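User: tokens in, sequence out, please.
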């Protein structure tokens, strides 16, 4: 059962009070992002990354895409997965018996 990681855009109250209170009731925290919507007059953070994953295991960044007055958000999770690469060897057995069997085909 993996912990949730939420990405969203929401129009919220200007001080984020209602949003923060609701997240707290679900044991979820909001990753602090710099402004994600920038106009000539304002800069606000209307996009967010939320999770109940420990703070130390998440990093987030705002990316300037130049596509509109919105930015993009990028989130990195530190996973604790171990490498499961298996070592194996490929061998060819070129004996007379094996070569004769191949000639039949």
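Assistant: Sequence out:
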């Amino acid at each position: 059962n993996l912990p949730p990681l939420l990405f969203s855009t929401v129009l919220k109250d200007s001080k984020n009070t209602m949003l923060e209170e609701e997240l707290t009731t679900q044991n979820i925290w909001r990753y602090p992002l710099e402004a994600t919507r920038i106009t000539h007059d304002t800069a606000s953070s209307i996009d967010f990354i939320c999770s109940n994953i420990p703070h130390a295991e998440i990093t987030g960044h705002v990316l300037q895409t130049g596509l509109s007055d919105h930015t993009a958000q990028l989130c990195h999770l530190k996973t604790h997965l171990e490498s499961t690469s298996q070592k194996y060897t490929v061998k060819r057995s070129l004996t007379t018996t094996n070569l004769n069997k191949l000639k039949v085909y």
